[in-house]
Amino acid sequence: MPVSLQLRKVSKTFDLPRERLPVLDDISLDVAPGEFVCIVGASGCGKSTLLRLIAGLDTQYSGSVVYEGQPVTGPDLSRGIIFQEHRLFPWLTVEQNVQLAFGATPVPRAEQKERVQEQIQRVGLAGFEKAWPHQISGGMAQRAAIARALINRPKLLLLDEPLGALDALTRLKLQQELQRLWLDVGITMIMVTHDIEEAVFLADRIVAMSVRPGRIKRIVPVPLPHPRERTEARFNEIKHDVLEDFVASPA
Q1: pLDDT (tens digit, 9 = 90+) per residue, 30-45?
Q2: Is residue 107 assigned to a domain?
Q3: Looking at the 3D structure of the chain, how many domains does it have?
Q4: What is the pLDDT of residue 21?
Q5: pLDDT value at position 1?
Q6: Number of helices and strands (H, E) in the chain?
Q7: DSSP secondary structure code for residue 203 in this structure
Q8: 144, 125 contact by CB (below 8 A)
Q9: CB atoms within 10 A of CB 8
Q10: Could you tell me how far CA 114 lies from the centroid of its own chain?
Q11: Per-residue pLDDT reduced to its tens digit, 118-145
């Protein structure tokens, strides 16, 4: 199987004033090109920390993180990231926030405008280009954040609980949009989530992590065709199988 991302024996420790706190321990994982992987686990198991290492936002760890044959030594436009908070600048419009992702890239201004419009349309925000962040809903703001992350056409998109702050109905709708985007764009996605049903709905594989220091407890394949139906028996079998890793069985 071709490998896009390779983690080998990755461990991470935080240095606190009076002690060293191990956060990740001996993480090894291969991710294939175009795969959708969800990482699940209790709070404090190091899911978000692991995503930061893959993004190159933190380089203080042991082991190796290799993307497309090259060690990850810092952030790169080939790896986009979306956080739980949309992080839109309130003094910029939706289109200005999306265009901001170009930064100092050599993309000509005319092409920038064309790609901004393309991504805004792709995430369903056409007509809201001139809106300010306070004029749109939380779900729409997160769509803008997704458009901004896609604007430089990354090959790998990292998602750190991007739907966690949304209401239940908006979350369900954006899960469907994320699935549609993934199928449409065809990039590799790695998503951190607390929501087991969300992971089963989206992922090719679910990485279940144990708590502090974070280790991979097991990897669960989700061999269901897209689009997926939450009411299907096999869907719920996989969901309950993963849930058993985190919920104690009754006596």
Answers
A1: 999 999 999 998 888 8
A2: yes
A3: 2
A4: 85
A5: 65
A6: 7, 10
A7: -
A8: yes
A9: 13
A10: 25
A11: 989 888 899 999 999 999 998 899 889 9
Plot region of 68 (φ>0 → left; ψ -120 to 50 → alpha; else → beta): left
Whether residues 159 and 190 share a domain: the answer is yes
d(CA 201, CA 96): 32
Task: Say which DSSP state 204 is in.
Answer: S
The string of pLDDT tens digits covering residues 178-191 is 898 898 888 999 99
Q: What's the domain range around 199?
A: 1-67+154-163+171-234
Same domain, 143 and 206: no
DSSP three-state, residue 215:
strand
Q: Cα separations (Å) of 38 from 55, 88, 101, 206, 245?
A: 15, 25, 25, 5, 15
Beta strands in the chain (DSSP E): 5-15, 20-31, 36-40, 62-67, 70-71, 79-82, 156-160, 188-193, 205-210, 215-221
Q: Is the dihedral of CA 179, 180, 183, 189 positive or negative?
A: negative
Same domain, 93 and 49: no
In CATH, what number is assigned to the domain containing residue 196? 3.40.50.300
DSSP string for residues in 7-63:
EEEEEEEEE-SS-EEEEEEEEEEEE-TT-EEEEE--TTSSHHHHHHHHHTS----EE
What's 135's DSSP letter?
G
Identify whether 119 is part of a domain.
yes
Q: Are residues 18 and 30 in the same domain?
A: yes
Q: What is the CB neighbour count within 10 angstroms for residue 240?
A: 12
Task: Please count the residues of the chain.
Answer: 251
Same domain, 59 and 159: yes
